[in-house]
Amino acid sequence: MECARITRIVEILVFGAGAIGSFFGGLLSQRHDVTLIGRAEHISAVKSHGLRVSGKTSIIAKPHAAMRVPQGAKPDFVFVTTKSYDTANTMIALRAFADRAIFVTLQNGLGNAETIARTARRVVAGTTAHGVTFVGPGEIRHAGVGETMIGAWSRVSESDLVRLRDLLADVGIVASVTSDIRTELWSKLVVNASINPIAALAEVPNGRIVRDKLLLGVLEAVCREATAVAKAEGARVDEEELRHRTILVAKRTAANRASMLQDLDRHHRTEIDAITGSIVRAAERHRISVPLNASLYALVRAREAAFRVTSGANVRD
Which of 63, 84, 103, 314 has a CA that sits 20 to 30 A from residue 306's CA? Predict the structure, then answer.
């Protein structure tokens, strides 16, 4: 099916405009009415100078930007791109659009679509392998091109999915529609779990993992464990295909500093619980041994705990 050019201006709200949210919102704003909702410094910079995208994509986008949802907003699509641990609170802020808008999640980990669907009527679940790094307020770097997949989660028709696919294609984001989004979510989870924690703990960009034989060996072993869990959960995945996909993603995003590494760099909470934690918990349910995933989970959680202790010691009452 050919891509139909989108002629009508579409109103889009991107809630949680970090790296990925700013990337999608920035590109969409070239043709549509996009509002980014994010942190104060980033939003202030976007308002003043626009959103600078460098790397594989080089543009200065001019989306609307705000710290809170503007009064009178009537979005056709709401992209939820917050950290997974913020999804439930996010839906409180977006409750007003629960019946009118199509909600799209491009978040990491499992459970986000379910959480969104408790409030929103129509939900699209998606995955993307684009590598995007938050450089600083008002600036992101598109470090690697990757595949984007979208699928129906709740009360979304095929025409809705085709419309969203074409909306993205119209601004240069190639997306595919899948009839089995749950398998795609598990596949993305395996890829994330095989790259993010290793990059975060080794403090290296993605490409270094596949160039270093020792780190590559760890990646492959983590991938094998996670794939076994995905299969037990009913995902139609193949171990060799996922190993190949994971290595390809790391190569395509070679210059990218994984989101988990960026979080640890800034002493922020990571998404380890929604990514590797999901695998560890599912493995326990199926009585599958995942020692490497369990170790990475424990180590990243320990790094997070150390940050909390340090920051707590410096906070005055």
Answer: 84
In this predicted model, what pLDDT tens digit does every residue of 59-79 receive, in sequence order? 999 999 999 999 999 999 999
Residue 253 near residue 131, CB atoms below 8 Å: yes
Q: Mutual orientation of helices 291-313 and 213-232 as an angle, nearest 10°?
A: 110
* Domains of the chain with bracketed CATH: 11-179 (3.40.50.720), 183-310 (1.10.1040.10)
Q: Say which residue the tokens 């990757």 belong to.
A: 146
Q: Report residue 308's pLDDT band, with 50, 70 and 90 as the boundaries.
A: confident
Distance CA 67, CA 98 (A): 20
Torsion angle (degrees, nearest 10) of CA 262, 265, 270, 275: 50
- Return the active site residues: 188
Please give the torsion angle defined by the CA atoms of residues 64, 67, 69 and 75, in that order, rounded to the nearest 10 degrees. 30
105-160 confidence digits (pLDDT tens) = 999 999 999 999 999 999 999 999 898 989 999 999 998 898 899 999 999 999 99
Long-range contacts of 283-286 (CB under 8 A, 24+ apart): 283/225, 283/229, 283/232, 286/229, 286/232, 286/233
What's the order of all strands across the beta sheet hosting 139-144? 59-61, 51-55, 139-144, 131-136
> What is the end-to-end Cα distance of the chain in Å, rounded?
61
CA dist 162 and 150 (Å) reads 10
Highest mean pLDDT among 5-9, 11-15, 140-144, 306-310 belongs to 11-15
At 115, phi and psi to the nearest 5?
A: -65, -45
In angstroms, the CA 6 to CA 11 distance is: 13
Residues in the chain: 317
pTM (2 decimals)?
Answer: 0.89
Report the distance separating Cα 133 and Cα 154, nearest Å. Answer: 31
